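Posted in: Structural Biology > Protein-Ligand Complexes

Title: Requesting predicted complex, S-adenosylmethionine in pocket

I'd be grateful if someone could produce the C-alpha cells for the following input. Sequence and ligand are given below.
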Amino acid sequence: MSGILYIVATPIGNLKDMTLRSLEILESVDWIGCEDTRHSRPLLQHYAINKPLISVHDHNEQARAEQLLIKLQAGENGALISDAGTPLISDPGYVLVKYLREHAIEVVPLPGPSAIICALSAAGMATDRFSFEGFLPAKTQKKVNVLQNVITEPRTMVFYESPHRIMATLATMVEVFGEERKVTVAKELTKQFERFITGSLQFIVAELTEHSDWVRGEFVIIVSGYQAPKVEAVEFEPLMLLLIEQGLPVKQISEIVAKHHGVKKKLVYQMVLDRQK
Ligand code: SAM
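-- Reply #1 --
Done. Output follows.
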C-alpha cells in the first residue's frame, strides 16, 4: 500500500494560525518536505515536532519528486509545507503534486492560511469574482506588458509583492491603470504591524511615500476590476437631438445612438419620449 502526501498550510505570520489537524498530521508523518529547512525548523520546534526534513524547492523539485515517489510507494507518509502559507500558491509543490498524482499517489490537502484569502477576507473589495495574479515580473517593461493585458479585467485582481518592489510596482500600476483605480494594500497580515490601506492608486502612493516606515514587510495588492465608465446623457444628446430633428422613429434613434455611444437602447428610447412629451 502506498503512503499519502499531505499538503499542509502553515502560518503567514502568527504562529497560532496552525490548525489542530495540521499539527496532528505533521506529528504522524515519516518526513516533512519543506522549502528551506532553516526557515521551517523554528515553526516545527515551536510545536515540538521532530521529523526528518527534506528540502523541496524550485531548483530540485523534479529530482525530489522522483525520490519522494519511491518513499511513498514504499508505504511512507509525508507532508509538504512551504516557508509560509499554502504550498503551491506562489510557492513550490506543483511539480511534485502533479508527478505524484500521475503515479497514482494519494495527495491530501490540509487547508489553512494563505495571504490571498486572508487579504481578500478583510479588505472590503469585491470578492464575488477575483483572479490571482501572483508576483509581477521584476523588470518594468515586462510588468507593463502583464498589466496591460489585464487593464479591462472586470474581476478583482490580487497581486503578491515584496517590500523592495512595492513602490515601483504601484508606480507602474498608476501608469497602466490610471491614478483613480481603487486599490487595497494589505501588509503584514496576522502580524503586529498588520495594516490595510484603501483608496485610489494616487492616494496609496501618497500614503506610502509619506509613511516610508510602512514600506516594510510583506504585501498583498488588491486591485478593483475594470468598470466601463458610464456615458453621461450629455455625451449622446447632440446626436439624439439631430436624429429627432430629422424625424426618425424613436426606435431607430435609440438603436443608432446606442450603437454609437455604447449606451442602453432603453435609456435613449426613454429620453426621446421625454423630449417629445
Ligand atoms: N504560499 C504563500 C500563501 O499561501 O500566501 C505565499 C508565498 S509567496 C512566496 C510570499 C508572498 O505572499 C509575499 O511576498 C507577500 O506578497 C504574500 N504574503 C505572505 N505572507 C504575508 C503576510 N503576512 N502579509 C502580507 N502578505 C503576505
